[in-house]
Design brief:
The complex is a heterodimer of chains A (432) and B (251). Chain A has 432 residues and is an alpha/beta fold. Chain A is 49% helix and 11% strand. Chain A has 2 domains: 4-15 and 222-348, no CATH class; 58-216 and 363-427, 3-Layer(aba) Sandwich (Rossmann fold), CATH 3.40.50. Chain A is globular and about 55 Å long. The N and C termini of chain A lie far apart (51 Å). The relative contact order of chain A is 0.17. The model of chain A is unreliable at 1-27 (pLDDT under 50). Chain B has helices at residues 2-22, 44-51, 58-86, 89-113, 117-132, 154-160, 179-198, 203-219, 233-250; strands at residues 168-171, 175-178. Chain B has a two-stranded antiparallel sheet. Chain B is mostly helical. Chain B has one domain (53-250). At the A-B interface, helix 1, helix 9, helix 11 and helix 12 of A face helix 2, helix 3 and helix 9 of B.
Chain lengths: 432, 251
């Protein structure tokens, strides 16, 4: 699988936003033709960016959850679970933030949430997604597979408590209240964690905001898998199309005046490349496949499953894992569900059917709770690509007045835009 | 001093050649292992040669990648942090501009070698304006007046001349490169050295300047080893580097 175009994009965006923050203000809108796929890939750049702090005083933290000696050598750099704290000077409300599929506590979407919440006067603790390698490797469990929301919530809830104790001890964090938010898969996690907290009562969340959550993991995963499917042509067609996308970017770059990269020039690059919806779908699908291959490899190593690697073989830190990467690229989220999640869940509960499990992996499973939990709000976009037909309406109906549905933004494309940040500011007042 | 340098270069060359060929990245399997259940995708072998970039020195490269990460962690990043702490932001930017300005010289030469008169003229204009009005390059006054920054090096020149990238190569401290680009970088460095020699500086001043230049380069590179968290970071950085060079050469 050739995922080059994605890499280039990641490279361009990663370098430019970190390197040239002063350009953000100047080039905060673009004139690319809007589609929901474009908004998902480049962000909803047609709307002006919100004013957020340029830098925040992030403290990189780590916590030992699993004995370091038991961590496989190939993940030598991943001992201890990493997270971050952004601390207010004085006593203040605290917000936990949970990342989306495959994302770390420091992904770009996490950073814009951190800035938003910090600006509102919150201490912010950011936790990686249970689908992120560092989380999987450090999870002290041999039975829980990421994506099973109730189990993920239980693990997250436990980790949040340990982390909370740690920041009190090490950083003298004084929290007046505790709130919770998360985007994408992290939004679904937040819903389940909130439900768990009703009975456990450790944090007694003041406010919970679900950002662009999936309604049914199975539906969302099926949509994302299909983007890389390319029906008749199969993998060769996908490869050929990725090459075309890459040449379009290369040509566009060659025609630019300056060789420097800035957000403005990246928007120009996208505009010139004139990607079709199908090509944008492919980029999204490829990017999700990369996350899933990271996740699957970490699981394979951690649980000695022998899927992409030799079973009972300890991979040394200098050993090539390129072949394992190629193996993992052919596996879809769907196959992971059918071949790993279903059998594993059935092992612990033989009466569980596949259909029942699909039901469990989503928000419908806790619908009654969501209907009546006043502390929970939902924000999403009417054209979010991960929602199947009828799911936007479902969310609007279940959350009623507590739902905010923006007409545009694709999947999480508007998280650093004016109207979204304004919505968040209203939700997180930080006064109590 | 000269002969010592020669000796050092020779020793390093021999060491590199030995290391390049000696290290293996192939797994040594225990007795009770079982082959992976998921098979390699069909057509992988031929696709691997065309698209995955030639990496015969993977064993060496992976070790060097690890070495660089450790050097970063224990030496470079702490030095950069100290540098940032003691240097006011405006001076930091000034120093960065100063070195970028010196860097215009190889860009200019390489633009000429690639027969790109427009790029060469723009770069010359930048150098002239920034060296004079910009006080020896401390201020970048060229960009605001529409003289854009260009990026050329001898590796790209070789690429434009039709020389293939050759094997992927992770260089000590400098990181991702290829046989062609490493050769190019060495020649650029020699050219740069010639310019420095023209300035007639004393040994210590020269050393200080190159140290400061290295710190400045690292300070302005947002990359952190292993920060993607992915087990496949080595592979992805390789493809990213090679593709990035392709679009630079195509420009």
């Amino acid at each position: 699988m050739r995922l080059i175009s994605i890499f280039i994009m990641l490279f361009l965006t990663a370098c430019s936003t970190k390197n040239l923050p002063e350009f953000r203000v100047k080039a905060n809108t673009c004139d690319i033709a809007y589609t929901r796929y474009q908004a998902t890939v480049t962000g909803y750049c047609q709307e002006a960016a919100a004013t957020l702090p340029k830098s925040i005083p992030t403290i990189e933290k780590e916590i030992e959850l699993r004995a370091i000696a038991s961590i496989p050598e190939v993940f030598w750099y991943s001992t201890k679970m990493k997270y971050s704290l952004i601390k207010q000077e004085d006593k203040a409300p605290l917000a936990f933030v949970i990342a989306g599929t495959g994302a770390s506590y420091q992904s770009s979407k996490m950073i814009s949430l951190q800035k938003t919440l910090f600006q509102q006067g919150y201490h912010v603790i950011s936790i990686s997604s249970p689908t992120y390698s560092n989380f999987i490797i450090n999870l002290d469990s041999t039975t829980d597979f990421p994506g099973v929301l109730a189990q993920d919530a239980k693990n997250l809830y436990g980790i949040m408590q340990k982390v909370y104790q740690q920041v009190i001890l090490e950083d003298n964090v004084e929290a007046t209240t505790v709130s919770l938010t998360g985007y994408s898969l992290g939004g679904a996690h937040a819903a389940y964690i909130s439900k768990l907290d009703e009975s456990e009562k450790v944090f007694n969340f003041e406010k919970v905001v679900l950002i662009n959550p999936p309604v049914s993991l199975y539906n969302s995963v099926t949509i994302l898998d299909s983007y890389l499917d390319m029906k008749e042509g199969g993998r060769d067609a996908a490869s050929a199309m990725l090459d075309d996308i890459f040449s379009a970017f290369a040509q566009s770059y060659a025609s630019q005046k300056s060789s420097a990269f800035s957000p403005g020039s990246i928007y120009a690059l996208f505009k010139d490349a004139k990607l079709t919806d199908e090509e944008l779908e492919l980029l999204i699908g490829a990017s999700f496949r990369m996350s899933s291959s990271d996740m699957l490899f970490a699981l394979d190593v951690s649980y000695n499953l022998g899927g992409f690697i030799y079973k009972n073989h300890e991979i040394s830190k200098f050993e090539s894992v390129t072949n394992s990467m190629h193996r993992s690229h052919v596996v879809t989220f769907g196959q992971y569900f059918e071949k790993v999640v279903v059998p594993w869940q059935q092992e612990s509960d033989p009466n569980l059917t596949r259909e029942e499990l699909i039901e469990q992996l989503g928000l419908k499973n806790i619908e009654n709770y969501l209907r009546n939990a006043d502390k929970i709000s939902l924000v999403t976009n009417a054209d979010d690509i991960i929602l199947a037909e009828g799911e936007v309406e479902y969310l609007a109906e279940v959350f009623g007045a507590r739902a905010k549905i923006f007409p545009r933004g694709g999947h999480c494309g508007n998280m650093d835009r004016i109207s979204f940040v304004e919505y968040m500011n209203n939700q997180f007042q930080g006064t109590k | 001093m000269r002969s010592f340098n020669k000796l050092l270069i020779r020793a390093v060359t021999i060491l590199l050649i030995t290391l390049l060929t000696a290290c293996s990245s192939v797994p040594e399997l225990e007795n009770n292992t079982e082959a992976p259940r998921v098979k390699l995708p069909a057509g992988y072998a031929e696709k691997a040669i065309i698209n995955e970039y030639y990496d015969p020195w993977e064993g060496f490269n992976r070790r060097m990648y690890y070495f660089n990460a450790k050097a970063d962690q224990y030496v470079l990043l702490p030095v950069v942090a100290g540098y940032k702490a003691v240097t006011p932001d405006i001076l930091e930017t000034g120093i960065n501009n100063f070195f970028s300005n010196l860097g215009e010289i190889p860009v200019f030469i390489n633009a000429l070698l690639q027969a790109k008169p427009a790029v060469a003229a723009e770069t010359f204009g930048r150098f002239a304006v920034n060296t004079t009005v910009g006080v020896f390059g401390f201020f970048d006054v060229a960009t605001p007046i529409g003289l854009d920054e260009q990026n050329e090096d001898f590796g790209q020149t070789l690429g434009v001349w039709g020389i293939e990238a050759g094997p992927y190569l992770v260089l000590p401290l400098l990181g991702p490169s290829s046989l062609r680009d490493a050769t190019g970088a060495a020649i650029d460095m020699l050219a740069f050295q010639a310019v420095i020699n023209e300035l007639g500086m004393a040994g210590e001043e020269e050393l200080f300047l190159s140290l400061l230049s290295s710190i400045d380069t690292r300070a302005n590179l947002p990359f952190r080893y292993y920060s993607s968290g992915s087990a496949f970071e080595y592979e992805r950085l390789k493809i990213l580097y090679m593709k990035y060079r392709e679009i630079q050469i195509a420009r």
